What does this fold into?
Amino acid sequence: MRPTPSVPTPPVPAAPASAAPAPVVVTSTSSDAADRSGWAARHFDAWYDELVAGQSAGRPDPACWQRAELRAELERGSAEERVHWLLAHRDGRAVGAAEVRLTLLDNLHVAAVELAVGPEHRRRGVGTRLLGAALDVAAAAGRTSVRTAVEHPVQADPARWPGLLAARRWGFERGRSEARRQLQLPVPAGRLEALEAGARPHAEGYRLRAWAGPVPEQDLDAVAALAARMSTDAPSGDLRVEPEAWDAARVRENEAARAAQGRRQWLAVAAAPSGELVGYTMLVQSAHEPERLLQWDTLVVREHRGHRLGTLLKVACLRAAVADAPQARRVTTWNAVSNAPMIAVNEALGFRWDETVEELEADVADVRAALAR
Ligand SMILES: CC(C)(COP(=O)(O)OP(=O)(O)OC[C@H]1O[C@@H](n2cnc3c(N)ncnc32)[C@H](O)[C@@H]1OP(=O)(O)O)[C@@H](O)C(=O)NCCC(=O)NCCS
It folds into this structure.
């Protein structure tokens, strides 16, 4: 059950009563590399400032991507997805930012859209205008579904949270609720050892390995197969998710993208008695935000569940990471609210729920119709 609301919603001006404001003008990147770098030189810093202003309002620890990480992504490009950046201006002043992500290897029906408008520019149609421009990008790429996410502190009242109110107004209905949990570091002495000792007898014959850095060549195909299972075996709620297409090249592309952003990784894997890899987990740390470890991608394939491998994987990975990253002060992770087994592991480790993420999806045509109303 959610705690009683006590966090104020971000300061939002009442709907304006005076004369019609100046029109909102949206500039955006295209897929042309030269054009993107010209856009980045002119607009990137303003775009990032608007993104963070919109994302951070009313959230004590918003866990935004860092400026240098997103700049690296814009400059490098990716074989896995095409990203379009959109910046809204009014009267020559930046007033809002958006991003459209188009996966290129699977889920070709989806455009993932992020919208951010700082509190002082809200309720004046900027978000609506940015969403319209984002839908143009999605439609031009042949995408029929649009996805977005709204994040809010667990204490905030969802019935008053601006992003949720706007999303409903724009016609987003189906989705998945995720809980963000954080674990303060260092973990109290003895906790990891106790968890491991309790889990070990259930995992007889299984072997755990953890490492820092890229996946060893001999494990590459197996890790790619496990990454593919993440998209089918983790709860997807009401989102229309197609299986993701993973191979060794995609694992390496992800690693190269992360390295370009200044992020390093640790992985732990579990091998069955046969030697086959049946589970993995990953922690990531950014050079631009070293106090945070990101806990990503924990999976134990269905056939090998019930052996406490989830606990053993997380303990092994966390040990490896904190030994290399003594600056880390907390670990941040996200799970579907319905994912009881994973949540039980996280709670036992000491993670506590502090934010909710509503992932939302709608047909592009339905959102267009809602915007027209
Ligand atoms: C969501 C967000 C982008 C909206 O930006 P915005 O510029 O205020 O959006 P608009 O002015 O176009 O408002 C669109 C409609 O959403 C609804 N809405 C938005 N905020 C609202 C609020 N605080 N109270 C009531 N309704 C609200 C209204 O119906 C509004 O239309 P109206 O002002 O004509 O009544 C902005 O609040 C934001 O950046 N939030 C944080 C990031 C986020 O949650 N992004 C995901 C959005 S799906």
Q: What stands out?
A: The first strand starts at residue 25 and ends at 28. The first helix runs from residue 33 to 56. Residues 12, 15, 54-55, 115-117, 122-128, 148, 150, 162-163, 165-167, 169 surround coenzyme A (CB under 6 Å). The chain has two domains: 25-178+358-372, 188-349.
